[in-house]
Amino acid sequence: MAERTLILLRHAKSDWSGAETDADRPLADRGLRQAPASGRWLADNVDGIDLAVVSPAARARRTWALASAELEIRPPTRFDDRVYAASAGELLGIVRGLPDDVATVVLVGHNPGFEDLTTLITGERIPMKTSAIAMIGWAGLWSGAGRAPASVRASGRPPQDLPASD
Length: 166
Known about the structure:
Blueprint: E1 3-10, H1 29-45, E2 51-54, H2 58-68, E3 77-79, H3 88-96, E4 104-109, H4 113-122, E5 133-139, E6 151-156
Parallel strand pairs: 1-4, 2-3, 2-4
Antiparallel strand pairs: 1-5, 5-6
Helix pairs in contact: 1-2, 3-4
């Protein structure tokens, strides 16, 4: 049975100092440093990504632009309005609808949905601070997410020269 790998990448630290709407909030200086570190971790630890599904929020789009620039081969990217402010159940629906011809997908988005999704799929509570990564795997189809036994293969923020707290 085919192995699936779902990589959750929470957006990098955003800038709250302006008057932008939530969806238009840019990355903070710290986020501009965090996102490439996440991309370097992906480049060093993931053999290949077949598809990226990204929230349309400015901070998620910019996070993925900076992270994917670190990859040798950039995967096709799909911006999906459903990822923005999605609950765990809504995110699970997105995952279950992924095409079965892709094995490794990165989903770029937001909390609390990402933390709740990891719990829903794996039964483990994984903290998802800004720029955090959770790599989850299971045998089966995407439609089996949350139904098939799944494990957390890696989680946390890539090492970086930044304060640990958000």
